[in-house]
Write a structure and sequence with these properties.
By secondary structure, the protein is an alpha/beta fold. The chain is built from 11 helices and 21 strands. Helix content is 23%, strand content 24%. A hairpin with a 5-residue loop joins strand 18 and strand 19. Helix 8 crosses helix 9.
């Protein structure tokens, strides 16, 4: 006869406690401990578990077979397609397009499947099947061989698939979302730590046994992290984040964990009324090359083009900065798409090593297009945008920037230099301001872009007509309306 026992689990971090307490000892959260009832069958004391066979490292293992979704950007992020028996977790803000993308992937994989009646099964715990059909009609997927199921019990989902004939079983199972699923052997509400962990473990175990690929949608918290226990990210093989601003039409699918491919790879999509469309050339979209008749960007003060590397792909984006006089005791620092602490470091280096007066000014920084840049190679482009806005002088036309800035003001080399320059040449850029190469004898190849190697940040000022310590770029407005501090930049 099965016996039940209670345990007290923190809903924030998953730490188990002997009894209820107001504050979790693991993460310090208040009122996050909830009681969960676990039903277990009778144990068999005294019976040892059978031993297992050991294997060595020597031997050949075939590369995993890939199942292409025929969505090139999604296959790129996955490392070349879906791997049989793997588990993928896709997380993102509400309304960002997770369900739409996975419905498109299910339809594409179902159309490629010739051996089964349904190449994919889409399980929704949040929407009814009629709502899913409406989305499929809107995106032109109504005729795709995808089976729909509205259920929240993970036991019923697995039993439904096992009840199908072997030739009718799908190759892809989509769970939307894992926070709505529950395991029947736990007496707790869906979305709790125990239920999320148990439901995910049951689905992953079934996928490993049968070779089925499982994609689970995960909710995120207000901080942007995946809701539920942190162990959920360790259980799955791949973790993808769907990023994007509601005011932007671009969506970024980023891999932060992938056991079968590279991490930090991105896929770029564009949201439209027909669903998510792939962006084959993200650099042209982020730069807005089609805004002008000749396809070039009109140089304006405070803008600099950065050549970045996202995964294995070089991407060119525009970094915009605005330096304005501040009337506050603590000047504003507004940053979109970059690290605020990194911006503070660049401002401090420009003040201390170049003699500029940025610390007393309001600084606004934005990465155009909704992309978030995290690599240190953007330091030089950010510094160029700040100096350009301070001097009210545009950067040289057709020139891009990349390089890491040290605290002593030196410009350090970064990886992927050739790939960045090739992408710049493809888009017609004529110049590049870069750090010195590792090989002192190596120079830029013939043809554009022409490289200007700088070793110190003070050499960047000459491009904008400034000298170290030059504070006469433009006058400041009086801060006190009278005989107070006026000063110059």
């Amino acid at each position: 006869m099965a016996r039940a026992r209670s345990r007290f689990v923190c809903q924030e971090c998953g730490t188990e406690h002997r009894k209820w307490a107001g504050r979790c000892e693991g993460c310090g959260a208040w009122n996050s401990i909830a009681e969960e009832v676990v039903t277990r069958g009778p144990g068999r004391p005294g019976k040892a578990a059978p031993g297992l066979a050991l294997e060595g490292l020597k031997g050949r293992t075939a590369a995993p077979e890939r199942r292409l979704t025929r969505i090139a950007e999604l296959d790129r992020v996955l490392g070349g397609g879906l791997v049989p028996g793997s588990a993928v977790l896709v997380a993102g803000d509400p309304g960002i397009g997770k369900s739409t993308l996975l419905l498109q992937a299910s339809a594409a994989l179902g159309r490629e499947s010739a051996a089964s009646a349904a190449g994919a099964v889409y399980v929704s715990g949040e929407e009814a099947t009629d709502q899913l059909r409406m989305r499929a009609e809107r995106t032109g997927l109504a005729d795709a061989p995808v089976s729909l199921l509205a259920a929240t019990s993970v036991n019923q989902v697995i039993a439904t698939i096992e009840g199908l004939a072997p030739e009718e079983r799908p190759r892809l199972l989509v769970i939307d979302s894992i926070q709505t699923m529950y395991a029947e052997d736990l007496d707790s509400a869906p979305g709790t730590v125990g239920q999320v962990r148990a439901a995910a473990q049951a689905l992953i175990g079934y996928a490993k046994r049968t070779g089925l690929t499982v994609i689970m949608v995960g909710h995120v918290t207000k901080e942007g992290q995946i809701a539920g226990p942190r162990v959920l990210e360790h259980m799955v093989d791949t973790v993808l984040y769907f990023e994007g601003e509601r005011g932007q039409q671009f969506r970024i699918l980023r891999a932060v964990k992938n056991r079968f491919g590279p991490t930090d790879e991105i896929g770029v999509f564009e949201m439209s009324d027909q669903g998510l469309a792939e962006v084959a050339n993200p650099s042209a979209m982020f730069l807005g090359l089609s805004d002008t008749p000749d396809g070039a960007i009109a140089p304006v003060p405070g803008a600099a083009v950065f050549a970045g590397i996202e995964g294995t792909r070089p991407v060119l984006v525009e970094i915009q900065a605005l330096v304005a006089p501040s009337s506050l005791a603590s000047p504003r620092r507004a940053v979109v798409g970059w690290d605020t602490a990194r911006l503070a470091m660049v401002i401090a280096v420009l003040d201390a090593r170049c003699g500029l007066n940025l610390s007393g000014q309001d600084v606004y920084l934005s990465v155009a297009g909704g992309l978030r840049v995290s690599e240190p190679a953007a330091d030089l482009a950010v510094a160029a945008a700040l100096v350009s806005s301070l001097a009210d002088t545009p950067a040289p036309a057709g020139t891009l920037f990349f390089g890491e800035i040290g605290l002593s003001g030196e410009v350090r080399p970064v990886s992927g230099r050739d790939a960045r320059l090739r992408e710049a040449k493809k888009l017609g850029f004529e110049g590049a301001v870069v750090p010195p190469g590792k090989d002192r004898a190596a120079r830029a190849p013939a043809g554009p872009p022409r490289m200007v190697e700088i070793r110190a940040l003070t050499e960047l000022l000459a491009l904008f007509g400034l000298a170290p310590g030059d504070r006469h770029a433009r006058p400041l407005r009086p801060l006190d309306g009278g005989g107070g501090r006026t000063g110059t930049l």
